[in-house]
Specification:
The structure is a single chain. This protein has 9 helices and 7 strands. It is an alpha/beta fold. The protein has one domain: NAD(P)-binding Rossmann-like Domain (Rossmann fold), CATH 3.40.50.720. Strands 3-2-1-4-5-6-7 form a 7-stranded parallel beta sheet, with helices on both faces. Strand 1, helix 2 and strand 2 form a beta-alpha-beta unit.
Length: about 250
């Protein structure tokens, strides 16, 4: 097999949470461009994602699910397998953020963010791993970490805790599941132009501070995650286990 063939995802089935917009939609399109059929999971409208994926000649299954609890987890796997006969890739992209000073941070804002960003991510990964083991074919799990997996941040207590946890459980799952040919890795996006970062970009002072530290000198675009997502989802990454790849314009290098 030639090296470029190893990046080809034709015949693969990828589940992507938070697929309605932003980074999730971008990664869904990137994986579809590489040949994968897509299962999009979101509470929101996914018609735009569906159109983009089907416009590439791939199949798209829409699953509406609220990942604030683990209740939908098994149903997501079951519906994907019912539709496509198997799953090969899981991208845990869904995430929320709450901003408040740590001195005033509420328990609800703590629990809501931890539930979506870490708890459901773990149990959806567990359910996918069980399916991969049942299939006997191995599989890929890609978690979406953050710059705040590496740093403390400001006014985002639960988000920082959850994303630090994402990096930790990525390593843990990789350690345990590599023997099943399941690769678990993560992508840590830098400062990307998404709905989550709109308040930062609108704040002239914070925007200037952030851009001043990014060697690339610009906010990242969601499409700039295509390469890392396709790589980690592909056979080219078969010996990559438990690693978090930063796609950050050099932010962490400063």
């Amino acid at each position: 097999m030639m090296i470029l063939d190893k990046f080809n995802l034709t015949g693969k089935v990828a589940i992507i949470t938070g697929a309605s917009r932003g980074l999730g939609q971008a990664m869904a399109v990137g994986l579809a461009e590489a040949g994968a059929d897509i299962v999009g999971v979101s509470t929101g409208d996914m018609w735009e994602t569906k159109e983009k994926v089907e416009g590439l000649g791939r199949n798209f299954l829409r699953i509406r699910a609220d990942l604030m609890s683990t209740k939908p987890v098994q149903g997501i796997i079951d519906k994907a397998v019912e539709a496509f006969g198997k799953i090969d890739i899981l991208v845990n992209n869904a995430g929320i953020i709450r901003r408040a000073d740590a001195i005033e941070f509420t328990e609800k804002d703590w629990d809501d963010v931890m539930d979506v960003n870490l708890k459901t991510l773990f149990f959806l990964s567990q359910a996918a791993a069980k399916q991969y083991i049942k299939q006997g074919s191995g599989g890929k799990i890609i978690n979406v970490a953050s710059m705040l997996s590496f740093q403390g941040g400001i006014r985002v207590s639960s988000y920082t805790a959850s994303k630090s946890g994402v990096m930790g459980v990525t390593r843990l799952m990789a350690n345990e599941w590599a023997k099943y040919n399941i690769n678990v890795n993560a992508i840590a996006p830098g400062y990307m132009s998404t709905d989550n970062t709109a308040p930062l970009r609108a704040d002239e002072k914070r925007n200037k501070e952030i851009l001043g530290r990014i060697p690339a000198g610009k906010w990242g675009e969601p499409e700039e995650l295509h390469g890392a997502a396709v790589f980690l989802a592909s056979d080219a990454a078969n010996y990559v286990n438990g690693y978090t790849i930063a796609v950050d314009g050099g932010w962490l290098a400063r």
